[in-house]
Amino acid sequence: MEGLKFLIVFVVLALASSFASASDPSPLQDFCVAIKETDGVFVNGKFCKDPQQVTEKDFFFSGLNVPRDTSSPVGSNVTAVNVAQIPGLNTLGISLARIDFAPYGGLNPPHTHPRATEILVVVEGTLYVGFVTSNLANGDNRLITKVLNPGDAFVFPVGLIHFQLNVGKTNAVALASLSSQNPGVITIANAMFGADPPINPNVLTKAFQVDKKVVDYLQKQFWTDNNN
Of 9, 80, 116, 165, which is most buried by a Cβ count within 10 Å? Predict the structure, then answer.
């Protein structure tokens, strides 16, 4: 009986370990401050600075209190704070972002983070947020949404398409924490219609079930925006 209990515990821990490894690898030392020098060699993450040369600057970022310009076509501005901005985040499996939204419809358009779950907290304003599930057993995709006010938090599971829309009359600000030092982002419309080189219009015409003129128009608009 004791042997069976041990086996069950061992299996549970093994499963937990496998789930944990689905995110960024755990660090093998206190920190591994990233350096840019690679000598043409690429690794899954960043090379480490000599710990004796590490300073407080490697763990610091300033300016998240500063409002950003939201005059972009979608009316939002994302300030990322990942390993590219804070080298000390290397191997730590976490990053941050500030999102500013213009009044009356500022949008952080549908996108995914292929390597991270996101938890978002509203600091100012009112946001309509949501994500779309992967294909269910019946082939459908469920939309899960919520209107958030200051102090509210919402989770976007890793890899799922999600968005945030300012439904208020004033500027909105949110902070997001992500479970990767480099979560990545794929903005759906930009990826589909602004890819370089462009996706064959016949693919998009059939996938979206629209006239080729619509695809041509969208590719022209997004390709120009993405490649200027």
Answer: 116
Helix H or strand E segment including 123: strand 118-124
For the chain, the C-alpha Rg in angstroms (whole number) is 21
202 is in an annotated binding site: no
Give the global pTM.
Answer: 0.83
Tokens at 19, concatenated:
């789930």
> What's the sign of the alpha-carbon dihedral 7, 9, 13, 18?
positive
Q: Is 162 annotated as a binding residue?
A: yes
DSSP per-residue letters across 171-190 = -EEEEEEESSSS---EEHHH
124 is in an annotated binding site: no
Q: Write down the domain spans for the chain.
A: 23-184, 187-227
Token pair 């209990």 is found at 5
Quick one: which of 117, 125, 100 has its CA closest to 175? 100
| pLDDT tens, position by position, 183-215 | 999 999 999 999 999 999 999 999 999 999 999
Q: Which CATH superfamily is domain 23-184 in?
A: Jelly Rolls (2.60.120.10)
Q: Please check whether residue 78 is in contact with residue 173, taking contact to mean a CB–CB distance below 8 angstroms.
A: no
Residue 87: cis peptide before it, omega within 30 degrees of 0: no
Q: Are 152 and 122 in contact, with CB atoms under 8 Å apart?
A: yes
DSSP class of residue 212 equals: H
Give me the half-sphere count of Cα atoms (radius 13 Å) on the Cβ side of residue 64. 15
Burial class (CB in 10 A: 0-12, 13-18, 19+), 120: buried
